[in-house]
Amino acid sequence: MDEVSSNKLPPWLLRAILVSTAALGGLYVLGWLISELRTLLVIVLVSFFLSFALESPVNRMERMGIRRGLGTGIMFFVLLVAGALFLWAIGAVLAGQISDFADDAPGYIRDLENWVENTFDIEVDAQGLLEEFQEGGAVTNLATRLAGNLVSLGATVVQVLFQVLTIALFTFYLVAEGPKLRRNVCSLLPPQRQRQVLQVWDLAIAKTGGYIYSRLILAVVSFLVHWLVFTLVGAPFPAPMAMWVGLVSQFVPVIGTYIAGALPVLVGLLDNPSTGLAILVAIVVYQQVENYLLQPKVTAHTMEIHVTVAFGSVIAGSLLLGAVGAVLALPVAATLQAFLSSYLERGKVVQELEEAEAARQPPPGPLGQRIRQAFRRSGNP
After folding, report:
1. Number of separate helices (H) and strands (E) present in the chain
2. Residue among 98, 100, 99, 118 at smallest CA distance from 110
3. Which of 85, 178, 199, 221 has the greatest count of CB atoms below 10 A from its CB?
4. If we measure between CA atoms, which residue out of 255, 250, 244, 251 comes closest to residue 311?
5. Chain-centroid distance, C-alpha 337
6. H or E element: which one contains 306?
């Protein structure tokens, strides 16, 4: 009987096995849910940060007497009009340039053929390439090939539109019902946690709004400067090209500058090589002025974040959520930096007080004893 009882598992071990098994099963189910609901989670995350960006102007309109729902609708209308104008302008540029390139490509090919033959004394036969741009060629059949993919393209467009509308719906609710949502969330927490949640929430609104505000200022300045320069050098479509450079260079992290500059340089080169070179020089010069003069002054008052932290956060965001994570990385990093710095500042203040208190104490040894005796004789404690 004693041998049987000695082989019996202790109760705590059985409970530990059951708890570990349940925890592993829960983690597996949680990972499966995150994998299956990844798209929804990304939509909710994007909606939250869009609501943070729109919260400040809606709050200002509410203080002016405009109802919160109406103010949110006004902001959505402004964004819709601005987005439609941007897409229309860029679409017109691309359509015009593609059509002009298809028409002028045979002339470019002949000029290149003559230049190579005259410069290097090499006979070049570009007739096969020319036929691609003539009637019945591969380039002229591009529209026919694209038409065969309209079904899959249409499905992709519908899916993207559905996601955009879902983000818009979530964002509208989060902005219009922002104060009510904060009250509902905080009512579930103890008072100390409520203060922490509200502090993080307010920091996220301030930093995200500051990020958008600083980017808009730099985008407007970039648009005006590039519009003037593109007009002076005779670049095609100066206003849409300047709009493209201003927005893409500011709102696409890390590689936005290169993407923004590639399109106007390419359009300029297709129009005239000297124009393309002038556009390239203008973009490079302005980028240096912006990096060293404009951007530090603007972001110092809106979203101050160290360049290494910004670069690392963009890489981490892109690895976690792709392009969406790269865009959201900067306001997230700025919010976390501001939240942590507030607690680090408190620690620094406590340390300074302790150091000051220690400095007021008399030094150890005979000198300290004489100082304490002198204080006692004078009646001081």
Report:
1. 16, 0
2. 118
3. 178
4. 255
5. 16
6. none
Helices 191-232 and 238-251 pack at an angle, to 10 degrees, of: 150
Residue pair 205/55 in contact (Cβ under 8 Å)? The answer is yes
Phi, psi at 357, each rounded to 5°:
-65, -40
Q: For residue 362, give the DSSP letter.
A: P
Q: Cα 333–335–336 angle (5° rounding)? A: 65
Report the residue count for the chain.
381
Q: What angle do CA 63, 64, 67 make, to 5 degrees?
A: 80
Q: Model-level pTM greater than 0.90?
A: no
- The contacts of residue 350 (CB under 8 Å, 6+ apart) are none
**Cα–Cα distances in angstroms (integers) from residue 151 to residues 138, 154, 155, in the given order:** 21, 5, 6
What are the tokens at 92?
């017109």
Query: Distances from the Cα of 269 to the Cαs of 90, 235, 276, in angstroms?
Result: 17, 9, 4
- How far lies 268's CA from each of 86, 123, 179, 274, in Å? 20, 29, 50, 8
Token pair for 67: 């109802």
Residue 252's contacts (CB-CB under 8 Å, 6 or more residues apart) are 259, 260, 327
